[in-house]
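Give me the 3D structure for DUF3052 domain-containing protein.
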Amino acid sequence: MTVVVAAGDADQNSVAERLGIKPDMVVQELGWDEDVDEEVRAAIEEHIEGELLDEDADEVIDVVLLWWRDGDGDLGDALVDARAPLEENGVIWVLTPKTGQPGHVEPSEIAEAVPTVGLSQTSNLSVGEGWTGTRLVPRSKSRR
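Predicted structure for DUF3052 domain-containing protein (144 residues):
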């Protein structure tokens, strides 16, 4: 069953909570381009009461938002880069265009890249009108 969430201010403000982002977290954004969902970005910035950090940030990161489109390059390489500043239990959200949208990424591409960089895929959710988020977390050491 698919749950459709209507776009609106209340729903957009909750997008940060649905992504597991708490007000005191450090959030980095990678892969920004003119096609990203600005309402999602604004809702997250409002929730954390600060700006999203870019790829030049030196901080330890709690959550990485990786906007990713078909044709952006090697997802595995991008995940290695995204994981480098990530806090030990940090989360990477790979945000991809929904099916039928320009730049759509097949879920199998994400599934293939994830294990090679020591991550596990845990869930997917809609993060705006045209974007889907795939939650990635560090693979449990006990499962290695």
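Confidence is low (pLDDT under 50) at residues 1-11. Let me know if you want a second pass.
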